[in-house]
Structures are given as structure tokens and as C-alpha cells.
Amino acid sequence: MGFVSEKYLIAGGTASELAAGVEAAVSEGRLPPGAMLPPVRELASRAGVSPNTAAAAYRLLRERGVIETAGRRGTRVRPRPASTFREEIRIEVPPGARDLSTGNPDPALLPPLGDALAAAARAHEERPAMYGTGDDEELIALAGERMRADGVPAGPLAITSGTLDAVERVLAAQLRPGDAVALEDPSWTALLDLVGVMGLRPVPVRVDDEGPLPDELGRALRAGVRAVAITARAQNPFGAAVSAERAGALREVLGAYPEVLLVEDDHGSGFVDLPLHPLAGVTQRWVLTRSTAKAFGPDLRVALTTGDPVTLGRLRGRQRLAAGWVSHLLQRAVAYLWRTDAVDAAAVAASYARRRDGLVAALAERGIPAHGRTGLNVWIPVPDETTAITRLLARGWAAAPGARNRIATPPAIRLTVSPLGVAEVDRLADDITAALRPASSGRYG
Q: Distance between CA atoms of 122 and 248, rounded to whole angstroms?
């Protein structure tokens, strides 16, 4: 048939039916990634519908992240369809291997939740949350105090089910499929997946240990990105933390584009010992979100988000139309943990730092560059990800492939230090050295 597989028949009388047929063919593998689709008029002719209906079908498919249109190069199934997630790029961890690929916090550093949940349950018995109840006032007040203490501009607050929930609602309210978004490269896997599913175009911005490179951000802004996403501290997977000097340079670059949406992720609050240098407020539209996942536990699913009134209003409007609110039991549990100082943030940060900094230093002594200024992860450039991961598995260590996080940066692997004991650092560094620099190849660098 030229454009599509002979096994695939375009059919349907409405835009929704045409789009559903194409999406089903993609999901079932009858239309593989990269397959060309016919031009709008040819689609209309084949299906016996008007060109407007065919164009509407393609618009629906673009919005769902199933297809992409590249001008004269035509319309094709996305090389990485919405049903294919970077998180699915996994390795099988054999029995007995230490799994350093997960990105999870150390359970031993998370606070016990019994008292917090019991206090939340008692509050629920005294004042049950019903339809129309607002966010927990104590949690909102505590979040506001902490953000103001860190220099975040005053603004309205919202409580969402984690960072990604907040980011998705903000991007959906502000952008349209096809819009370009500047993302750190390497970047958080879930954010890359979200951008793809929403039909947005990621524009890579390289990072170093102090955050996004200002020249790279300027290039992305000049290319017409509509939004910029930046991680303030504990950048996943690179470990970057925006320094005071870098924050000043980034503010200067962003200040020339006041209409751009700035999304700032400060999930490192509560387990990182470096201060926050917020960029929030330099553009007209901005949000800053703080998840409690790494400090209190991923299952709490609570993030505190602030921003300009228009953007926060849109976020809360979309939230009311969907989930409605975050469980007040969870909100009150988080408020209890904050109120009682259940986590010694400095001690937690020091524990992660001993493992992370120790590994980076041990690798440096062996001539292997690695990055991990803050947070839970160490990012190690490698000549070939598959070879490095296979050789490490043979030595009893499971690493995450950098392909999950990369847009345009060279190959690398990511190691999460949470399961690692300080006494194991030298052995791990030796095994990484052996995996990356076989005896016959000389030094790696």
C-alpha cells in the first residue's frame, strides 16, 4: 500500500474512529515505529471521509503521542510510541547480584510512619475530610514557611500526588502537542516519558555538576521552547545542584524570555545539605514543586507546589476536574512528620554523601571520571553501556543503562548508592574499573 502495511486497513467514519484504528494497529504491532502514514487527503480518500475529518484524526493521534508530523517528511508513527516507556529499558538482575539500578532511597533512612498515620487517623475521626474540603491548612502553612525560608517567592500553594502529577497538570494547562520543552540532558526518566506521551518535543540542555549550562539553555530558548524544566538539587541521574553563581547566570538567560514557563523541581529538599538557589519568579509563569518521596518514602505520594497565581490556578482547576484532591490522611501524616522533625535532614544527607562521594573519589583515584555532587546517584560515562552493564553483572553489581535518561549525551551508566555500604565502596570501584578498563586496554579516560 506504499505508506502502511498491507495488513492494516484504514477504516472509520469519524475522526475518533480513524484515530482509534491507527492507535490499535500501533499497539498490536501492525504499524511499527517509524511507519509512514498517508497524507491527509489520501487518508480521507481511503476512508471515505472529508479532509477535515482526516486532519482531525491525525490531530488526535499527535495529542496522544502516537504519531509525529515533520513537514515535507510526512506523518509517521513515533520512533518511540507512547506505549513504550524508557522505564521499560531494564536489565535482568541475577540472583545474588546487588541491585544498584533502582533509584530508590535507603529504607533505613526513612522515618517510621506508625505515629504519623495514627495522628492523621485521629484527626480524621475528629474532622473527616469531605467533598469540597480544601488542602490541609497545617501542611500548607508549614510548606509556605519552609519555602520562604529558602528564598522561594511567595505565591499560592497546591498539594499534588508527587512531582510528576504537578508537572503533568502544569504542562497540559500551558502547552499543546508539538510545543518544544527544554529538558536537562541527561534527565529524569519519568519526565522524558511524560513529555513523549504528551506529544511535546524535548530539546536537550546539557548539565554539569552545577546544573544546566547557561549557553545551552540560551540556545534552547532561541530555538523557541515554550517551557523549561530544571532540577534544583539532587538532579537525577547526574547529581547536579544549581550553585549560587550558576543560578545567577541562568536567571540572566531566562530573564530575556519572560513568557516561557519555568518548572523547577526541588525534590532534594529534606535529604540534601546544599542550599537552594531558586530560579522561581524570573519568568511570568513558573512553578516550584517539592516531593516528599525521597525524604519520607515514595508511597506517601505528596508534593507541595507553589507558583504564580495564574499557573497555580490552572493546576488546581485541572486537579479538581480529575483526582479532586490528595488524601487528607497522607497530607496530615506529612504535616506530622514535618512538625515533629521526624527526619534529621543533615544526617540523611551525610549518609548518602559518604557513599556517593566515596565512590566518586575512589573512581577518580582509578582514573575513571564520574559525577554525583548531590542526591542518590552516580553517573559514569562509558564507551558502551551494554558491555559495561554485562561486565558489572558478572562481578555481582546491577547498574542502570544511561539510555533511559539520555537525549543526546554520550553513553553512561547510573548507580544508585542507597543499597551500598561504605565498606563496599572500594570493591565496587575496583569492579567498575575492571569492567571499563580490561587489562589489555590501558587506562580509561
A: 46
DSSP, res 204: E
Instruction: Determine the Cα–Cα distance for residues 210 and 237; give it in Å rounded to an integer.
Output: 13
Centroid of chain to Cα 396: 28
| Amino acid, single-letter form, for residue 91 | I
Cell of 425: 565502596
pLDDT in tens, 362-388: 999 999 999 999 999 999 999 999 999
Taking the C-alpha atoms of residue 281 and residue 307, their distance in angstroms, rounded to an integer, is 8
CA–CA separation, 413 and 342 (whole Å)? 33
* Per-residue cell: 274: 546544599
Q: Give the pTM.
A: 0.82
pLDDT (tens digit, 9 = 90+) per residue, 178-197? 899 999 999 999 999 999 88
CB 204 within 8 A of CB 407: yes
Per residue, what are the HEC states of 31-50? CCCCCEECCHHHHHHHHCCC
DSSP structure string for 61-97: HHHTTSEEE-GGG-EEE-SS-TT--GGG------TT-
How far, in Å, CA of 154 to CA of 333, rounded? 24
Please check whether residue 157 is in contact with residue 140, taking contact to mean a CB–CB distance below 8 angstroms: yes
What's the CA gap between 120 and 103, in Å, rounded? 29
**CA–CA separation, 189 vs 379, rounded Å?**
14
CA gap 64, 59 in Å, rounded: 9
Per DSSP, the chain holds a count of helices (H) and strands (E) of 15, 16
**Residue 269 contacts residue 146 (beta carbons within 8 Å):** yes
